[in-house]
Amino acid sequence: MNRVLSFFGAPVVLFARTTRAGAREGISWRECMVQLHELGGRSVWLVMSGMAFFGAVLVTIANSQARRFVGNVAVLGPAYFELLIRELGPVVSALLTASRAGAGHAAELSTMSVNEQVEALEMSAGDPYSDLVAPRVVAGLLGVPLLCTLGTVAATLSAVAVAGLAFGVDGRAFMDPRYVDGWDLLAAGLKAGACGLYIPLAAAVAGLRARGGAEAVGAATTEGVVTASLGCLLIDFAVSLAFQLLRL
Length: 248
Known about the structure:
Elements: H1 2-25, H2 29-41, H3 44-69, H4 77-114, H5 117-123, H6 128-166, H7 182-209, H8 214-245
Pfam families: MlaE (PF02405)
Protein name: ABC transporter permease
InterPro entries: Permease_MalE
């Protein structure tokens, strides 16, 4: 029970403290740009290549199912495109980002914690929430939606290429937006934004808690990745369920 309360409550408490500290102390936009490069710039290759393989796998599965039930994989294109835009593009891209950026944030902050650099920052009139956490949160809010967009584009283009080259069908069917509406885009944006907020908070909670030595750094890094990834899946489920209940 304590772990469940910590999973949901700790990022909320950290966000409240970070917001209050950022409003009081201000946020270094230069540091925000540095963190945006660390999160977005260093993750873009992983997200785009991973999503390209993901799109190819989905089309291969769609082709297998189409042969059994409808006979033409191109028929599934519009439904596939809606599913990719609304569900799979944001959440899988966010998971890939969490695996890299979440580990990086948690490892960096846990190393600072075990080396007592966080305490030294506080003794020199600094605030770890505004100086360390806030720039990472801003970078997540900006970087993860952008990475989700690029990942969805990569998955779509790979699906078009694989459909045309491997299965001999018009790949443009997998870019057919007839079923995509504003609610799909809103759901995708909410998932990407919420994951962008949660990933750095989950990693910061794990990193700032670390005490001890190298073993604590490793444990915090693992915890940051696991918590951030599970949080992305929970966000995906919560947003999807809310839209289903509202019939949107």
